[in-house]
Amino acid sequence: MSATQLFARTVAAAAAAGAVLAGGAVPSSAASPAAGFGAVQYDSPGKDTRSNASRNAEWVTIVNKTGRTLDLTGWTLSDAERHTYRLHLKLGAYKAVRVHTGSGRDTATDVYWGSGNYVWNNDRDTATLRDARGRTVATKSWR
């Protein structure tokens, strides 16, 4: 079994069971949401130089937990201070995308917020994913 197939089965089983996913993503309602959070790197490794490379080392992973492609156009990712990034992508079945804080060239696996500052607070923050209608799909907090 390939790594992609194993990932897809693991995510599908966790979503079906309403389980906590890697990185602590927890469904926000009784029904399992179509997307959630995977790993988060909120504290850019090394010294905070405010360089683009340092800002891009800060990221949040969004995971499609379904067996179908999700159109995330118009969905938003925001922090507790309401800094907001609007998504413009389709995320394949059981795929994940990292949203980097700095600037870069978007790919199927990595997109870039384009912020000139760090977004995620190192001591505590909350990432919120909302659908195109503004409904909260998932949250992830750290302290």
UniProtKB/TrEMBL annotation:
Keywords: Signal. PROSITE patterns: LTD. It comes from Streptomyces albireticuli. It comes from the Bacteria. This is LTD domain-containing protein. The keyword Signal applies. Residues 26-143 form the LTD domain. Residues 1-30 form the signal peptide. The keyword Signal applies. The lineage of its organism: Bacteria, Bacillati, Actinomycetota, Actinomycetes, Kitasatosporales.
